[in-house]
Amino acid sequence: MRVLVTDAETTLSPLLEEMIASLGHDCLVARDASSASEVMRTRDIDLLFADWRTSGVEGISRCRRARESATARDTYIVVVGGLEPDEILESLDAGADDCIAIPVDVTEVQACALAAQRAGAGLF
Questions:
Q1: Mean pLDDT over the full length of the chain
Q2: Cα–Cα distance between 92 and 48 in angstroms, integer?
Q3: Given a cut of 90, is residue 11 above it in pLDDT?
Q4: Residue 25's closest CA among 117, 96, 102?
Q5: Cis geometry, peptide bond prior to residue 103 (ω within 30 degrees of 0)
Q6: Which domain holds residue 15?
Q7: Largest CB tally within 10 Å, which of 70, 97, 107, 112?
């Protein structure tokens, strides 16, 4: 599975990269919204971990843009951050499939990967 992590601060991506690699998946990292958009246009991404606030565009906007994009419509999107209940609802309403809090736990990352695989296989 190909996974994209958006992380403007470079604090989240090294940890997620390590977790994703340990689960046997390929991981790409985008440092800003423009780079993330380019990757989403040019690569098949199965799972997107979108930082709540990515330089230039909020994670919410990233969800909306991904859902509007023909190439990313089937991408499983997880918003990552210190989310309050209303922000979780806003994320899901914008098109996220899941939300996880910081600090990120490898079990949550693995659960998201499993959910993405099932969604990609048409099991949901």
A1: 84
A2: 14
A3: no
A4: 117
A5: yes
A6: 2-120
A7: 112
Q: How many residues does the chain have?
A: 124
The amino acid at residue 49 is F
Residue range 13-36: mean pLDDT, rounded: 90
Token readout for 98 is 């899941």
Contacts of 98 (CB under 8 A, 6+ apart): 76, 77, 78, 79, 112, 115
Residue 115: both structure tokens together: 């959910």
DSSP per-residue string spanning 75-102:
-EEEEESS--HHHHHHHHHTT-SEEEPS
Catalogue the E-assigned strands of 1-124.
2-6, 26-30, 47-51, 53-54, 57-58, 76-80, 98-100
CATH classification of the domain holding 80: 3.40.50.2300
